[in-house]
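User: Please run a holo structure prediction.
Assistant: Happy to. Please share the sequence and the ligand.
User: Here you go; the ligand is NDP.
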Amino acid sequence: MNQSKLIPCAVFGASGYSGVELVWLLHNHPQFNVAYGFTSSARPAEPIAALYPQLAGRCDLILQPWHPNLLGAVAQQVRVAFLALPHQTSAELAPLLIKAGMTVFDLSGAFRLQDAKQHQAAYGFKQPHLAQPVPYGLAEWVDLQGDEPLIAVPGCYPTAAATALMPVRAMLKPDSAPIVNAVSGVSGAGRAAQAHTSFCEVSLQAYAIGTHRHQAEMAQTLGCELLFVPHLGSFKRGILATVYAQLAAGVSAHQVQQAFHQAYADQPLVRICQTPPKLAQVVGTPYVDVHVTVIGSQLVVSVALDNLQKGAAAQAVQLANQYIGLPTECGLLHAGAVI
Ligand SMILES: NC(=O)C1=CN([C@@H]2O[C@H](COP(=O)(O)OP(=O)(O)OC[C@H]3O[C@@H](n4cnc5c(N)ncnc54)[C@H](OP(=O)(O)O)[C@@H]3O)[C@@H](O)[C@H]2O)C=CC1
Ligand SMILES: CC(=O)N[C@@H](CCC(=O)OP(=O)(O)O)C(=O)O
């Protein structure tokens, strides 16, 4: 492959779970080249395979500790930066990268919420002010122009909820808050060890009922109130969401099925399934699988996606593809998962 024809990019947070998936997807992409993979300043420089031995012989990227004095050299070489960092770290770094001329795809929640008060309440810090509004990159619904300096990649749970409800949001009973009941694998919490995500502690359990920061993100996208109940499951990766909503009077099952087919017929990474999806069919893939049931006025949508792919890295690459005018699925179908 002629490296000089590829678009050089940098992955920040490349030692983390979303970051390593980004590195692997971009490494296998026909149009991008990972020029830099950065970690926090706490690590020594080391091959990515030292952290992820499954990449030995397959990816020779050297991870480097990030230091702001590298910005000039990086900006000379890199056009696109992917941030897989803690929210506040992204909030601080993204404006610097934009100012240095890079286009930023941010996987954190730093720029997803448009309401400053909601952002402060959800994330506990003030959102930086930017000159332009930041598009929310729900890949099947956003229309990128290719000149935006920053794109906020949606959260993993909100991608599942929005995929389930966007096609029918105009068909729902007014003021009837949908319910999003979702189970995530432990990689959703990131790589750093924490007691509540350790092997001996995790056992299927609900958490943050009605208070999770993703509830506001889902409500913002869908334009209605809803209830979100996340669960942590004892498996590595994947999200299975069951979404319940009341349909407005007179809406038929046929209309609902048609709305889903119309919305997703031309979207290669959304698969409408004849049976409720299993996690195993999406883990390690960029797909989100959807099954729709209507029982009278009750809508039940079952959605499965991989939190690190469609819920994070693959959606970011999908957006980068759209940004530069490539097919949305370019480079995503054959790479597979790292962890
Ligand atoms: N995990 C998931 O399913 C999803 C995650 N996201 C979002 O993506 C982002 C990354 O999440 P995830 O991959 O899970 O996290 P991890 O904890 O696995 O990785 C975090 C990464 O950020 C780096 N980092 C931490 N602090 C700093 C700092 N001060 N300066 C530079 N680098 C730093 C870490 O480096 P080091 O190894 O040196 O500590 C590591 O590479 C988060 O914002 C998360 O909310 C979004 C969707 C899904
Ligand atoms: C299992 C688990 O802990 N999941 C994380 C959400 C995943 C994530 O990283 O959140 P963002 O998509 O907003 O970045 C949580 O509940 O906080």
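The chain has a mean pLDDT of 97.
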